[in-house]
Amino acid sequence: MIITLIFWIIGVFTIVLQTTFLQSCPEWFGRPDFLFILIVFFAYRFAWIPGIVLVFSLSWIMDVVMSINLGFYPLICLLVFTALKMVSNQNSVKESTYQIPLLGVSYLASQFLLYVIYSMALDLVLPDWDWGRSVQESVLLMIVAIPVLVLVGRLHFYLLVRKQRARTPHRSSWRMRRSS
Length: 180
Hints:
Order of helices and strands: HHHHHHH
Strand content: under 5%
Oligomer: single chain
């Protein structure tokens, strides 16, 4: 529960960073979706219920802050989480081998799915689909995801070890219980 709360706070900080600092960067610099990277991380490392709670609450916050059409971003994020969770549970290949490529493919697929949903909902205001830009954003996200996933992976491991240490009884207390 504490680990979920810590990653929720990190997610909120990510949303603040993404909606303030990254929006002021020039367009050519690129604006990677750090929340999407966290969603992929949640799919690989968290159980179903905490992961869904994290994904839905954070994507809903992002949707309220940035979106014009409410509800589409959380829907896409939940679909990506579910798909990656099912793929990662069924796959026996080492996680680091497929994590980054699946992130890129899922981001490209989510952008296409979001475009299809927008095209059904908003016929007149939708620009044409640009494969080049979408692939470029996916590659940028994959490059940025490498250090981010390493960083949050180490933090997750540290928190798990710390939680495990807190649960194991100390030797002195074990001896005291045994002698009484």
